[in-house]
């Protein structure tokens, strides 16, 4: 069974745009993170263009399948900016900075941060959003749901009474 850090790093790679680097890493990801095998096996037999088109359909549908965690909590409200600053502050406390290529609440970035530091506070804090994303991806019928299943399985149970 892989350590959670390995799983988080592998999940981060699986949730980024499927380029040639991801395709080349699939055998390693498959072996390093068995909970992601359903996804990695699917990605390994799917032509890259088809995989990329699927990624775009799944994650470019506005906020329905957003990989930006604060959107699940804040939506488009003014609090969104405050949440982004909070993500940056957590990163800085660990001596890390965002590259500027993505917003700091981008799930693959948060997973990579968690893998590098062992700090699960952001994933735990946004657990309800992760669960809603996981449910929507499952309902959509995408293999990306398996990635969220694996990540959510590593986190403490969500408090009961949390709205879906």
Automatic annotation (TrEMBL):
Name the record gives this protein: Nitrate reductase molybdenum cofactor assembly chaperone
Species the sequence originates in: Streptomyces canarius
One Pfam entry name: Nitrate_red_del
Classification of source organism: Bacteria, Bacillati, Actinomycetota, Actinomycetes, Kitasatosporales
Assigned keywords, A-Z: Nitrate assimilation
Superkingdom of origin: Bacteria
Keyword match Repressor: no
